[in-house]
Amino acid sequence: MRVRGIGRTDCADAARATVAAGLTWQTCTTLLHTPAPYAGAVAALLIVGTTVVRTVSAALRYGAGCLLGVLVAVPGALYARPGMAGLALVVFASALLARRGFLGHHGVHVPTTALITFALVRGRHPGELASHLAEIVLGIAFGLACSALLFPAVRVRSAERALEELRVLVARYLDGLADTVVRRERPREVLGPAWEQDLDAALERARTCVDEAHESLRWNVRPCARRRRWHLDRRVLRTLTDVARELTVTGRLLDAHPRAAGPSGAAFAQPYARLLRTTALCAYSCRGGRPHPALPAARHALTRLGAAGCDPPAADAEAGRLLRPLESALTCLSAPAPAPPVRTRRALSPLQPSQRR
Q1: 165 phi/psi in degrees, rounded to 5
Q2: CB-facing half-sphere around the CA of 314: CA atoms within 13 A
Q3: Residues 64/83, Cβ–Cβ less than 8 Å
Q4: Phi, psi at residue 81, to the nearest 5°?
Q5: Closest-CA residue to 56 (of 168, 143, 126)
Q6: pLDDT by residue (tens digit) across 106-115?
Q7: Tens of pLDDT along 162-175?
Q8: Cβ(43)–Cβ(62) under 8 Å?
Q9: Is the dihedral of CA 63, 64, 68, 71 positive or negative?
């Protein structure tokens, strides 16, 4: 299992959580006169996430768990007799709610808060209970504020790096398939035995990074986040995913029939290898703008190669199976780029007669 190192983003997240906990502690000791406001500091630490969206989600789940714990414990502490029966009822009900899963790992706060509330209500300490809940509210508030205002992360660069790695890998594997066609070898002998697993891992990493990048831009108050116009990244990822799928299909065909690309000798193998290399060039140039200039010529060459046919008919069928995934990949790469969003500008109204002076 690969252990990820501590990076700059992790240090920034830890710093925001530390500031939130410190501010909560200081505020509680000043306003609530609590000597050790651990409940508020813990709440601030636990809700600060890597993005503003995750912090808001954690705050809602944390607050909901505490609220459910209070709602379960108060009736049991006031009305259940004897005390052990009330305690058992509160623990059972709160543990059952925590295991429902709708609060995620924050479900543990339901039985925790329920037990604290039960003890304080049974012991006739309403002031301590109010102070405990006020600490949690302040901790959640400071956690939200620090996550939103203290330089929230913008994870666009990691997504761009992941997409670049995916582009390079797809292009390298397409170029490697061209080598297998020319040499009439199996793809695993040229690309390595784990090439499909490596491609799947790069795709999953790119999807994760792109999702995290979009999430980091939501509700982000930093000016660099507001200026980002990242409307093409998901389309680039979809295109590369489709090309990778067709690449995998082609590799499996060549792996099962290593000599299938040479049914008519160099008359098919050489043009097919050139098409694979051109597709690799187009995949590496897939960045959300105009399609590569070589795409129309590649599609025309693909049509001519498919119309030329092979002899015998069985070889022609094998060639057709090899050309179909390549045609699908070129179709994905040649899709037109979406038009950029139009900025609405206030139209200049004609001057009124009183303004024409």
Answers
A1: -60, -40
A2: 3
A3: no
A4: -135, 140
A5: 143
A6: 999 999 999 9
A7: 999 999 999 999 99
A8: yes
A9: positive
| Token output for 232 | 């093409």
Q: Which amino acid is at 320?
A: G
- Give burial (CB, 10 Å; 0-12/13-18/19+) of 2: exposed
Joined together, the tokens standing for residue 128 give 């301590």
Look-up of token digits 């009736």: 75
Contacts of 93 (CB under 8 A, 6+ apart): 72, 76, 114
Task: State pTM to two decimals.
Answer: 0.74
Residue with tokens 């809940």: 133
Instruction: Report d(CA 354, CA 238) in Å as an integer.
Output: 56
Q: Residue 42 CA to chain centroid, in angstroms? A: 27
